[in-house]
Amino acid sequence: MAETISVAELNSRVKELFAKTPALNDIWVTGEISNLKKYPSGYYFVLKDSASEIHAVMFNSARSRISFEPTENMKVRVFGSIGMFVPRGTYQFIVEVMEKSGLGDRYLAFEALKKKLGEEGLFDQEHKRPLPAYPKRIGVVTSQSGAVIHDIITTSASRYTADIILAPAMVQGEGAAQTIVAGIKLLNKQGVDVIIVGRGGGSIEDLWPFNEEIVARAIYESQAPVVSAVGHETDFTIADFVADVRAPTPTGAAAIILRDKNEIRNEVESYVNRLNRAMISILDGMKHTFEILDNKVAPKAAIEGLNIYRINLDDISRRMDRCLIDKISSMKTDFITLDSRLQPSRALEEMVHHRTMVEVSLDKIRTSAQQEMRNSRMRLVSMDGRPESLINARMSTLESSYESSVKRLEGLNPLNVLTRGYSMITTVDGKVLTSADDVKVGDRINIHMRDGLAEADITKKEMKR
């Protein structure tokens, strides 16, 4: 009869078999690190290549023997043995030594596509579209059996109401990228306001469909704005760079798109309060204006207003009279100053001119009188025997002519100018002064008036500008 053993016994025998098989112990294996996780006991990760993968662990005792930090997608060469974890019946590669072997193939493909699309401008901020403030229809591209759609629906229940339309798609494995692209195109035909493209966390292989070029271009060409919600907050895919908005998680995507009901309620209440305050302010302003108008229209207020206008008018009249008197006084002062500056000079010129004319006229009169007297004497001699009356008449005519000439000369006398109230100023040596530039403080001057002469000293000089 065949032996019957427990599950634990079976797993223990497999573990012993692994330990006794040389081909599974102390061997070197090359592969790429994926789904790396760090725990207090060490590193847990998946070691994979293009055809297969195996779970691996490197405990802290082995970690102390390497000089670098293992990272996601790092290509490594590890030394160790196959071990069996009996409680779970799983086996894994226990790493004793690790060496860097280069970057992983998927990481290089990721960087190459990222560079290509970046150079084409698919990541440029200017192409990012704003999300609608209150979307009515939200499209979701994800697995219909996964937790993503459930989380989005749960989150939306406490937020602004919107219809959620699911476009089922594969989110990992071969052909997943094509179903994601089909979902995006379908939702655009349905006329949704915004699209969420996402899935839960996983290894780089699980998330790889969202690093495919066809998915990136479908997101870029979408008519509706796209929110990328792929993996955990630390996971980044090409879809995240192309999308209009990146959400850290699918739940976060719903929170970004749909506003919280309480937030909206508070905002509406704030607007209502502001409107009430504005209305109260307007009413207070209208009431104040009405009171002012009422005071102006009231008879008593009107009379008081007229009295105020009368007082203001009287005050303006007094100020005008005062200004007119001040202006006339100022003009009079300016005229006297100007006249005192100009008239003496003009009078002096007239005096010089008339003095010359008087001297010439006196010479002519003197010569004429002498000649006339000679002629008269001769005529008297020749008229000897004529009546005496004829001689008297001729002498009277000569006297009248002489007196008339004397009066004319007196009118032209320059000294008569002084009798009209003007004065003439000269230096002590007789030079006539016509400008303030001709004297300086300390000089002595003579002031000629109609009835005398006065001496003065210059104590102050002010030039008119």
Low-confidence stretches: none
**Alpha-carbon Rg, integer:** 62 Å
CATH superfamily placement of the largest domain? Response regulator
- Structural class, from secondary structure content? alpha/beta
- Shape, principal axes of CA atoms: elongated
Biggest sheet, in brief? Answer: 5 strands, mixed, barrel
* CATH architecture descriptor name of the largest domain: 3-Layer(aba) Sandwich
Helix content: 40-55%
Mean pLDDT: 80
Domain count: 4
Strand fraction: 15-25%
Strand order of the largest sheet: 1-2-3-5-4
Report on this structure.
The model has no long low-confidence stretch (mean pLDDT 80). Helices cover 50% and strands 20% of the residues. α4 packs parallel to α9 (250-257) and α5 packs parallel to α7. It folds into four domains: 7-103, OB fold (Dihydrolipoamide Acetyltransferase, E2P) (Beta Barrel), CATH 2.40.50; 134-259, Response regulator (Rossmann fold, 3-Layer(aba) Sandwich), CATH 3.40.50; 298-415, no CATH class; 423-465, no CATH class. The strands form three sheets. A five-stranded mixed barrel has the order 1-2-3-5-4. It is of the alpha/beta class and 465 residues long. The chain contains twelve helices and 13 strands. The longest helix is centred in the C-terminal third of the chain and has 84 residues, at 299-382. It is elongated, with a radius of gyration of 62 Å.
Compile the SSE list and pairings:
Layout: H1 7-20, E1 27-39, E2 42-48, E3 53-59, H2 60-63, E4 74-85, E5 90-103, H3 105-120, E6 137-142, H4 147-156, E7 163-168, H5 176-190, E8 194-199, H6 204-207, H7 213-221, E9 226-230, H8 238-242, E10 245-246, H9 250-257, H10 261-297, H11 299-382, H12 388-412, E11 424-427, E12 444-449, E13 452-457
Parallel strand pairs: 3-5, 6-7, 6-8, 8-9, 9-10
Antiparallel strand pairs: 1-2, 1-4, 2-3, 4-5, 11-12, 12-13
